[in-house]
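Chain and conformation:
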Amino acid sequence: MTDGATDHDLRAAIADVAAAGRLLVACDVDGTLAPIVDDPAAAAPRPDSIAALAGLARRPGTTVALLSGRRLTELRTMTGLGPPVVLVGSHGAEHGADLELTPEAALLLEHVVRDVHWVTHGVHGVQVEVKAGGVAVHVRRATHLDAHRVVADVVAGPGARPGVRTTLGKKVVELSVVDVDKGRALDRLRDEARADAVVFLGDDTTDEHAFARLRPGDVGVKVGDGDSLARFRIGDTADVAAVLELLLAERTVRDPVRDDEAG
């Protein structure tokens, strides 16, 4: 189940973190809960992972959050999850509520989307996804040469506009007109949950911002290949389900006493 650390080490870390009084469990979605597919609109999370997250959300002292680059409305539909699970979309820009841009940011986004469509027009296999606070250019289905050229043109063109934040992911480049990332989003979730410990699972380069915010006693799990700040690594979305099910089992055994139940 693990790579950089042994299966025993990860299991031991899960058992330890499950004993936290207040635990935050946060997950990326695409590539973590849902296998990566050529068409992002066709992606679907594994039912066993969703069931484990729903079970964790029902445990005392446990906050569960999904932290995704997808729009919040799309995230709700895709996963079928809602309260008590906290949904955070657009890399943190939509934190439990749809994003409302300032007039200046809305105008900038309009220009960025126009420029992106101009750069990508007529390139086979490239998909443009307009989000609440930005735009993503997916190149997974393009040829290697076209993908490389389009990403370079997007970064050098609309990505170079003042006020635009550029993030490179796996076969995708994202441009945002709001200054957010998953690290700051995770910090906010930790504060809101008053969490004593955090478990975070993610697969993409955008998830490294969150791994960078983890503290001693937290558990970071990288899914798949690539350099990572995470302490542990697993292979794929099936392993994610196994980790979440193990955490649920440990948390069920080790339920902390709630403050309002303490005598």
Summary: The first strand starts at residue 23 and ends at 27. The chain has two domains: 7-98+180-261, 103-176.
